Every structure is written in structure tokens, then in C-alpha cells.
Amino acid sequence: xxxxxxxxxxxxxxxxxxxxxxxxxxxxxxxxxxxxxxxxxxxxxxxxxxxxxxxxxxxxxxxxxxxxxxxxxxxxxxxxxxxxxxxxxxxxxxxxxxxxxxxxxxxxxxxxxxxxxxxxxxxxxxxxxxxxxxxxxxxxxxxxxxxxxxxxxxxxxxxxxxxxxxxxxxxxxxxxxxxxxxxxxx
Length: 186
Fold this sequence. Notes:
Four Helix Bundle (Hemerythrin (Met), subunit A), about 190 residues, 2 strands, mainly alpha
């Protein structure tokens, strides 16, 4: 083995060769780290863009019109009156439709007005609605009238329980709309 003065040997190879290999590996490692960081930055940009879209959609949703509790109750009031005249005229198809409209409005209240304390008591109406629906299915005018009275009284009980006792519901004495015939169709 030829020893060259000034060079150190490790396992019969000059140390200088090992050092140059380590340096070239460092460069490869640095390049790999830069690629990884660039990739992470690109993913962060995509995540940030998605977050901006989500934030924008949440803002739009928050600003979307949602009917208030009063609008739902006004709708129920109209369906309550229409239900009465449909039942009196034994238009059972229309009466069934109006029962379902009331139920749908109650479901909407539960969904869109959950923060209102009144929603906690709204379930008390279910047995009365079921009673009216049963009378309509049986096409029984006498049962319908008594079930409708139960429904109306339950509305007033709920109003009292929620400090809205000043809002008294009665069986309607005149048509809720003048452009609808409540008699059964042909």
C-alpha cells in the first residue's frame, strides 16, 4: 500500500473520498427536504383556499333568509282555518292535505327555530294532530269536530305555557281565503 504523505486512511481508503461522498449526500438530502417543503407549501395553499371557500359558504348560509317563528305560526293559522272548512265540507282529501301542512310547519319550526324556548313545548300538539288525522282518515264529521276542538284548545294551552296566552286561537267563523272552494271536487 502506498502511503501518500499528508493523507489519512480509513479502511484503506483516503478520508478525503469519504468526506466528498458525505458532502454529495448532504446535497441530495437538502434537495429532497426543499422538495418536501415546497410540496407542503403547495398543500397549505390548497388547504387555505378550501378554508376560504368554506368560510364564504358559512357566511352566505348565515345571511340566508330563514323564516321566523311568527311566520311559521301564521302559516299554521291559515292551515288551521282551511282544515276547519275542509272538514266541515267533508272534503277529506283537502283536510288530509292541511293536516300534513300543519305537521310540516311544526317540523320546520323544530328545524329552523330550535333556539326558541317555545320549541320545547311544541310536542304537546302531536296527540291532537293525530286525533284530527284519525278523524279525517275515518271521514267522520262528528269525530273531526271534536278533534278540531281538541287541536284548537291544545294550541291555546301551548300559548299559555310559553307566555303567549294573549294569542287565543278559535275555530274560524269566516273563510280564510276567498279564492278557494272547500267543497269536495269532482
